[in-house]
Amino acid sequence: MFERLFKGTGSLTKLIFRQQRFKILVWLAGLVTVTLACASSYPNVYQDVPSKMAFAMTMDNPAMVAMLGPGYETEDYLASFGTLFAHECLLFTTIVAGIMSILQVVNVTRNDEENERIELIRALPVGRLAYLSGGMVVMFTTNVLLALLTGISLALLGIDGIDTEGAFLYGAILGATGLIFGIITALLAQLAETSRKTAILSFSVLIAAYLIRGIGDVSNETFSFFSPLGWAARAQVFVDNYWWPILLAAALSMIIAFATFYLNSIRDMGAGFLPERKGKKQASPILQTIFGLVFRLQRTSILAWTIGIFALSASFGAVLGDLETYFADIEFMQAFISNEAGESITDQFVTLLIAIMSLIALIPSVSVVLKLKGEENKNLTENIYSRAVSRTRLLANYYLLAVIVNFIMQLMIVLGLWSVGQLVMEEAIAFGSTFTSAFAYLPAMWAVIGLAGLFVGTLPRASGLVWLYVIYCFIVIYLSEVLDFPQWMNNLSVFEHVPEYPIEELNFAAMAVLTFIATVMAICGMIAYNHRDITG
Q1: What is the pLDDT of residues 169-182, one digit of tens each?
Q2: Where does the chain cross the membrane (predicted)?
Q3: 198/279 Cα distance (integer angstroms)
């Protein structure tokens, strides 16, 4: 019986891997490269005992424990660079590995089911569970490759304190965390009816795991053991090298996998155990407009991003009170923020923070534009074009919604930082300067939106490449100083040309040029979209 259920798994695994091979390559190359670049920078930044002591004292702060997890003994920080690297980078890298697996599993489960690929596959002589098992094998293989490549690469660096066992444990933690969140996503795909709801539930679990770990690390360690991220933070990499988090993650993954396969075997195609709420019988007047329809299709995700951006900004605002002391002692952060005369370290940090938050806030705006290509792939745009609606009008409404989302997200950044900062700072940051600093990034964000529209119009199949540019902009903002990028590489990022107010004066000429570039790309995208074939 089991053989019949899984018949054809090998062939489908090859098919799924072939479909996903480019995305897998990009994820693995990006994660391993950034990990190695960060690890290599620590010997140059922490060159003496005082800087390591300052690091140890700062990481003992409850706010930093909540953010990065429990640390090591002071002697461990002084003994090697591995502990410095692991404490500051491990937790956030595991989160990225979890995101990788979530997106991969959503794509090979609910997304393929919505696009009727699985129904087509099941018409062939294959088992009922073959496609799901093939997707799980690909996800498992991806995380094993991540673990091995990371471990081997770190071990070959030859950095003091990064030993072979610790390097492979570091990689194994990334792979195990990615595996468990991938399996959880597969389970949630059986509960939800759509890929969007599956993604929302999966990312909610990831965020909840981070919050539970943070609460447990600060107040009650017992809570941390209910979070896979809490297990990863207790592996004591490069010191004690505990492997029990890997075994625990593997055991839990197997249990969830059994439940996932069982639920998949008893549910109907296209159905879920958490049915969608029934809509209204009659559409509202707003929904009968093109903009109303475009907004309604993405209302839930926009609301989720709005809440998430505000919460993230508020959490950063909560640590503003200790910034002067924190950055005065931490030499590593001075690589990111230059101590210019006449400017407080708080202002310098806030400008960097707003730049990073603006990049994160760019994600929902770009997603709005790329949604048009997703609707096209599902043949849903044909229903709109069967009426008196032009392509220019439809794409323009997607642009308009993306711009509105830009304004909303930047406002959430300002309100989150400023409102919480008022409560924790003796000299609170001014609302006006925070507002100006955040909204100065709008032209750069519009340029990326225009780039997304240009991809949709000219290279629709490669429209996902816009995310590579977003990632590149993040690397330029966050790591260009540490990685010593030449200026021409920095200039490739539109965010490099945004004035860092209030440290710098507003450069209206640069902002006007960015707005012009955004407009040109948006118009070119419309022209190209009007002249190409609509595919499904």
Answers
A1: 999 999 999 999 99
A2: 84-108, 129-156, 168-191, 198-216, 242-263, 302-321, 349-370, 396-418, 438-459, 466-488, 508-529
A3: 19
